Structures are given as structure tokens and as C-alpha cells.
Amino acid sequence: MAGDYPVSTPVPASLYPTLATVLLGGGLCMTGSFFLYEVTKTKSNRQLSSELLLAFISAVLLGLGTLFLLLWTGVYV
């Protein structure tokens, strides 16, 4: 068929270990920060926007880190 091109990844496979390590490390740090925020603040001093922001950032970092970890180990999703 005309116009067939080989499929290639947008991220080189040699960067998978680095990306997995950095993203999972960052996600764990943000999760720890979220936990400390919840434990140290009283219920009246908490802000929903801060909680949602910390939770969203940690979820995205952990999700992307898990994706690159799976790609690094050869599970192509």
C-alpha cells in the first residue's frame, strides 16, 4: 500500500529506564507530600484546591512512571 511508514516510538527506548526512575521517584515524593499535608493540617486549615493539586500531580507522575516501567521491562502497552 502506498504511504505505509514504519511505526516508531516518540520516546527512544534508551530513555525508558531514566524516565521510569525519575517519574516514579517524583510521584512517590509528591505522594509523601500529600500524606504530610493531610497529617499535619487540621481539618479547618485544609484547602481542597491544594489537596486536589497534590493528588493530581502525584497520580500523573505515578501513572506515567508505571507506563515507562512496563515499557522498560518489555510489556508493550
| Major sheet | none
| Structure class | mainly alpha
Query: How many β-strand runs?
Result: 0
The general outline is elongated
Q: Whole-number average pLDDT?
A: 93
Number of helices: 2
Description of the molecule:
This protein is an all-alpha fold and 77 residues long. The chain contains 2 helices and no strands. The longest helix has 26 residues, at 48-73. The relative contact order is 0.18.
What tags apply to this protein structure?
77 residues, mainly alpha, 2 helices
Summarize the structure.
This protein has 77 residues and is mainly alpha-helical. It is 66% helix and 0% strand. It has two helices and no strands.
Would you spell out the secondary-structure blueprint of this structure?
Blueprint: H1 16-40, H2 48-73
